[in-house]
Amino acid sequence: MANLRRTVQAPIRVYRKFISPLKPATCRFYPTCSAYALEAIEVHGPLKGSWLAARRIARCHPFHPGGLDPVPPAKGHSSGDKPVQTT
């Protein structure tokens, strides 16, 4: 699974390293869409993380106010750090 995550994240890392520096900073959201995508794939896996990233990119248009938009925590995790213990 880790190899698949890295494979899905590779084009995003290439974009951040080579393409993004050539463009002016115009992101409406924090974190940026590429940072959001990397984190979403890391937290939720390649399939759901890619879906969340695509939804985020679809919201990036002049009629959306933008702002703070963190990656939602994974199910079963309180803050994404430690699993929730159920008894």
Question: What's the structural blueprint in terms of helices and strands?
Answer:
Blueprint: H1 2-19, E1 29-30, H2 33-44, H3 46-58, E2 67-68
Parallel strand pairs: 1-2
How would you characterize this protein structure?
This protein has about 90 residues and is mostly helical. The protein contains three helices and two strands; from the N terminus they run αβααβ. It has helices spanning about 1-20, 35-45, 45-60, and strands spanning about 30, 65-70. It has a two-stranded parallel ribbon. Helix 2 packs antiparallel against helix 3. The protein starts with a helix and ends in a 19-residue tail after the last strand.
Count every beta strand, where a strand is a DSSP E run of 2 or more residues. 2
Q: Within the largest sheet, what's the order of strands?
A: 1-2
Number of helices: 3
Label the structural class.
mainly alpha
| Low-pLDDT residue spans | none
Distance between the termini: 29 Å
Strand content: under 5%
What are the secondary-structure elements, in order, as H or E?
A: HEHHE
> What is the arithmetic mean of pLDDT?
85
Rg over CA atoms, rounded to whole Å, is 14 Å
Helix content estimate? 40-55%
Indicate the overall shape: flat
Q: Please summarize the sheet with the most strands.
A: 2 strands, parallel
